[in-house]
Amino acid sequence: MGSKLKLEFDGLDNVIQRLTKLGSNVKGTAEKALKESHKIVTDKAKKAIHPHHLTGATEKSIYSPPEVNWAGNIASVPVGFSIRNGGLAHIFLMYGTPRIKKDQKLYNAFFSKATKDEIKTIQEDIFYDELRRLNG
Length: 136
Prior knowledge:
Number of helices: 6
Distance between the termini: 42 Å
Order of helices and strands: EHHHEEHHH
């Protein structure tokens, strides 16, 4: 599941505009928020994949450490498993097969509402903390 996390919370554009007016390093704040988001997902994925440790190849294929990529003004960070680096098995574990039951914990590490809400909260906290810091 090679996926990307992006900055996504209500009011993001407004906060970025306010930070820019205050002379903040918005790029640095964005990278911090994405790295913390990556940590949330990666920690959950590592805990969920651990029971499936046979060769360790799938565990080792988790994208770590976080590498923030910029495409113009849009930042993202890859999360999940790199298929090129031995992560193919995660697909069968996450979604199941006719003979293997789906691992709901592994699936939830990426797609649950709780995970998405946790990511949204940490991103908001980081941006609003920066805004508070600059406003005094």
